[in-house]
Amino acid sequence: MLEASASHQRDTVDETSLLLPGSSTPSLGGDSTSSKPWILLVTLLAIGVAATDLGSFLAQPPKTRMYESIVCLRYYERADPSKIQSNGVIPEELCKINAVQDTVAMIFGWQDLWDALPGIFLAVPYGVLADKYGRKWILALGLIGAECSLLWIMFVCYIQLPLVLTWLSSAFLIIGGGPLVIVAIMFTMLSDIVPTEKRTIIFVYVAASALVAELIAPVLSSILMKKGVWLPIILGAVIEGLTILIVLFLPETLHLRNSGPRETPGGKEQHPVQMASEYSSKERSGFKAQIQKLLDTLKVLKRDISLTLVILTFLVNRLGRQSGDLLLRYSSKRYHWTIQKAALLLSIRAGLNLVTLLVLVPVLSMIMIQWFSMSPQRTDLLISRGSVIFTTLGFFVIGFSPTPALLVGGLVIYTLGTGFAAAMRSIAVFMVGGQTSHDIARLSATIAILESLGMLLSGPFLSFIFRWGMKLGDAWLGMPFLLSGMLFFLITVITYTISLRDLNAAQTPPSATEDIPSPVHSP
Predict the structure, then answer these.
(1) Could you list the residue ranges forming a coiled coil in this record (predicted)?
(2) Angstrom distance (rounded) from CA 291 to CA 286
(3) What sign does the dihedral 420-421-425-431 (CA atoms) show?
(4) Cα distance between the two ends of the chain
(5) Average pLDDT over residues 193-199
(6) Where are the alpha helices (DSSP H) in 356-403?
(7) pLDDT over threshold 50, residue 28
(8) Strand, helix or coil for residue 408
């Protein structure tokens, strides 16, 4: 269940700190090394993040195979019972037919929608509770809900109930709010305790721990699946259960907030988490007040057309990138691979993402700023344009790839665009006036709303497109990736409508805008 939000985690948290305006990657060595109690807590949180992702991605391939085998058995019981072996198992190669894969795609597509609903509707209430009663208890609740969700799926599959009953697993996510709340609380706890000047690098390290888990889990899962599908699923559930115990041993961070303040334009100093909390606490009582707060949040879209287009790219980005969740089933169906073999693609993707996020994007950003003396605005603009072009090309190559080698090549090209979300967030921050703007919290909330909407719509929509492609024939199995490529082509056009004048004008007082030179359009 949590693996469904892993790409969302990377886009919304991992990458955002890599390209913050005017910042380079900080070093951990600037502070006094005498007493740093926060380091132990950060280490425990990083272990918790890694363990959560390890358990989730460990269970993903066998869960997919289990769904496939159950649907396959039901199909051949009606269509051709002679294909059923004496032990009641259908050979996996017989389960790649359209009738089976269509049902599996439908189950997963609607599951994504149901899983997204609790986080969208309960993120604010649980955020308020976390501000009032403490972070760790809300985090523990979220992990308990996720564990119960996985256990329900295991129960349905074990006694071979109709797979549509797995959708009820989403109801358990009401306990704690699901993946979106879990991720938000984890990084809020980090923000509470990590010194401001070290927050960027710590966020990167914690994000890297999740990617390392994603790198290891599919390989381990593939090995364990040789013994059957239940061993990796049970191990994943045990690891997620151990994460709950880790959280219970964490100290509460609500009252350990880092004293490093941030100065607002009015001269008043505020902690970033306090600013977000104050914003979310305004008008938070009553249904009408919640609707009004939502409308107030979306007012940032009226600021100017360029900012509106930039923010809307996050909706399109989320819709497009969710097609990555189809990679396992797409490769298995297209190349007639076993799920066990296709799972290795997830490790390849994680490894490439790790290199891109921790090496390529930071190094490229540093070279452009330090060697070529480019402004942070120009750097982010060029990186966003390059990233979205790579992503677009990657999707088209994956969608059209007739051979596994070409698919891996498309995957490499696709991951070169991983820095897009970070660059666009940085550009959006510039366009509302920079890090000291009063609109930062509203901007973040608007982006979160649009990304959540993208997650909500993408599951059933991409599932429908995948099923449609199967009906058209093997050559069109990559339809979800081709559609994502077209969506990212639209984003490419949007990035080329943004000029440095837009970014400079956003941070220049109205009286000074007359002095801005003519627009500079980066190639």
Answers:
(1) none
(2) 9
(3) positive
(4) 41
(5) 79
(6) 361-366, 376-400
(7) no
(8) helix
Q: In this model, does residue 277 exceed pLDDT 70?
A: no
Give the residue, 308 or 32, on which the prediction is more confident: 308
Q: Are the beta carbons of 187 and 135 closer than 8 angstroms? A: no
Q: Which residue segments constitute the domains of the chain, with CATH numbers given?
A: 2-27+37-254+286-507 (1.20.1250.20)
Helix (H) / strand (E) containing 269: strand 269-270
Question: pLDDT tens digit string along 403-432?
Answer: 999 999 999 999 999 888 878 887 887 777
Contacts of 149 (CB under 8 A, 6+ apart): 1, 169, 170, 172, 173
The residue assigned the tokens 């721990």 is 209
Mean pLDDT along residues 239-253: 91
Residue of 116, 439, 462, 448 lying closest to 299 (CA atoms): 439
- Give the mean pLDDT of 210-237: 95
* 90: helix, strand or coil: coil
Phi and psi angles of residue 242, each rounded to the nearest 5 degrees, phi first:
-65, -30
- Pick 398 or 129 by higher pLDDT: 398
